[in-house]
Amino acid sequence: SIWIKQVRDLDIPCTPDFSFATFLSDPAIIREWNLQGLPADSFSSENGIIVTRGSRWSLMIDPQGQAIKWIKNMELENGLKIIDLQQSDFLRTVENSVQFGTPVLLQNVEEELDPSLAPVLNKAIIKIGNRMVIKLGDKEVDYNPDFKLYITTKLSNPHYTPEISTKTNIVNFAVKEQGLEEQLLSTVVSKEQPDLQNQKNELVVSIANGKKQIKELEDKILYLLNTAQGSLLDDEVLVNALQSSKAVSQQVTEKVKISIETEKRIDGARDAYRPSAKRASILFFVMTDLGRIDPMYQFSLEAYIELFTLSIDKSQKGFKPEERIQYLNDYHTYSVYRYTCRGLFEKHKLLFSFRMCAKILEAAGKLNKEEYNYLLRGGVVLDRETQMDNPAPNWLEDSSWDNITELDKLPNFTGICNSFEQYGRDWHKWFTQQEPENSALPGEWENACNELQRMLIVRCLRQDRVTQCVTSFITNNLGVRFVEPPVLNMQSVVGDSTARTPLIFVLSPGVDPVGALTQLAIDLGKTDKFDTLSLGQGQAPIARKLITNGVKEGRWVFLANCHLSLSWMPHFNKLVEEELHTKKPHKDFRLWLSSSPHPDFPIAILQAGIKMTTEPPKGIRANMKRLYQTVNEDYFSEVGCPQKFKKLLFALCFFHSVLIERRKFLMPG
Asked: How far apart (Å, rounded) are the C-alpha atoms in residues 80 and 149?
């Protein structure tokens, strides 16, 4: 904004509303890309231009597969070749493509690229006479100018060496909130108002075709003017072409204008469903942020859109759009919570609920961002000379006083430091309460603070009670069910999965899922079709054989301890893609895996799979619910004295749950 103002002050000619996308590309081409699967937001359009117009080959960071989908559709008619570095003959495919001018998609690369690709990345083309040649290995291959190379990675935050960064255009195709919101809006409208969405899709195609036609007419006129000889008025072909082009151009321009007006009206009607698309978009980014906590927390956009579609189908219908959106938002929010919680460790479930709650409130404008950031980060005193002295050093620790003095700098807490001098005795009484979060605050602070602000004071003085405050905050804003994680039901997990979905146990110390899985196989009558193998040195060929046979015969295959065979994981990833996605597996086939958290576990498998943690849940109630799930009604009916048996079972479950809970006290427990 600073230099644009100066440019205008100096009367330098410039475009008033400059757009990178419209300057370097044609709107008709961008519309075509959108139809081919490129998200419709400006960020994605700019990425598309860099990929297609860049002088270097593009390396696309594509954790959700958006770029792969677009490139496959865009280059489908040009004979696109898809390779990865695990293929033994990938270099031969590159050689043929360089020679014959076909595009190549190198997918799922890690942080290092094969050195044999260096001549292609460097575009090390040698001109020999009229021939253009590139040296691949020990061969000289004719270079076709139509050749294109696209590279994608599933890593969400890769670190590439300077050598790779200088040879390629690194383009971030990670989905953005605006782009995802548009995709989800299309999903919900196509379910709720299919006619409206079909009209929208037809108009998008119609506008794109119209603008393309206008562009072609303009190019034709320019070509004729350029090639005309002698007087332009004497050239009948040119005059006739100009007249016909003018008539067609006017018709097409009028149609495009009407279509754009109609599109605006349709968009207005579609916007009624935008709140549900916005909520769903927010929740997806809360899920993907979990990957920063643990490398095993990876989620697929494709699976998430399926979950959203399921929520649309199963949620309660309403008479008014506002009612319907409210029902859908409530249902989908809890569906996301259930879906995500079964793959989270116990210590992260409350954090996930709180993050969901905070993001929903922030989107609704009900959360003070400055106060929320203080809750997460606390206060750090940078200048102790200007800091007010601690008025109660006998009971108030210096670290707590540091937090209070920094809290005083927030607009809603001005004067809180002075209140410790005014109401020192009252603050001490509040500080020594067993449940200070439920006790009245001293002086005017009781009426001045909302729930989040009370939480900040607890965070400053009594950090041991922050968990209880967070639980209460979630309960008051989202409901009690968001602080009571559902117990893992293995049978429902099998029901939710397909033959193409790996089922992954994320291991925690001292917990082995083999017993529970064996019992599940017995319950579902799969004992004769259940193969288990613990991975390690030399086990890869056996695992490959088990999967190949299992896919054909519909067996269950359990590969335990994948973290002990990390060097084989890239090959395993390729095997899973070939057997489960390229081929058609038997409908009864299931691939079960177990692994400790590790950053080298294949992201593609984590995204495609259903993740489960097997550690006991927190709390006596949750543990008892888990134990009762292992007992069915038939078990009770087989006992001679069911009433006495029920009491004994309750006592045993209660005792067992108490013992499990006491483990958190370590040796004394």
From this structure: 10
Buried/exposed code over 384-418 (b: 16+ C-beta within 10 A; e: otherwise): eeeeeebbbeeebeeebbbbbbbbbebeebeebbe
Residues with Cβ < 8 Å from 42, sequence gap 6 or more?
19, 21
> CA 623 → CA 428, 515, 628, distances in Å?
38, 17, 9
Are residues 602 and 568 in contact, defined by beta-carbon separation less than 8 angstroms?
Answer: no
Q: What is the 3-state secondary structure (H, E, C) of 616-653?
A: CCCCHHHHHHHHHCCCCHHHHHCCCCHHHHHHHHHHHH
Give the separation between CA 669 and CA 666, rounded to whole angstroms: 5
Query: For residues 562 and 572, what is the distance between their CA atoms, to the nearest angstrom?
Result: 10
568: closest CA among 542, 597, 589?
542
Joined together, the tokens standing for residue 556 give 């269950």
How far is it, in rounded angstroms, from Cα 316 to Cα 327?
A: 6
- Phi/psi of residue 140, each to 5°? -105, 120
Question: Taking 90 as the threshold, does the pLDDT of residue 170 lie above it?
Answer: yes
What token pair was written down for 47? 């990425």
End-to-end CA distance of the chain: 63
Q: Are 374 and 410 in contact (CB under 8 A)?
A: yes
For the whole model, what pTM was predicted? 0.81
The number of beta carbons lying within 10 Å of the beta carbon of residue 194 is: 10
Report whether pLDDT(226) > 90. Answer: no
The gap from C-alpha 419 to its chain's centroid, in whole angstroms, comes to 45
Laid out side by side, the sheet with 139-142 consists of 125-128, 131-136, 139-142
E strand or H helix at 4: helix 2-9
CA gap 314, 339 in Å, rounded? 15
Task: Identify the helix (H) or strand (E) that includes residue 371.
Answer: helix 369-377
From 274-288, 422-436, 600-614, 630-644, the region with the lowest mean pLDDT: 630-644
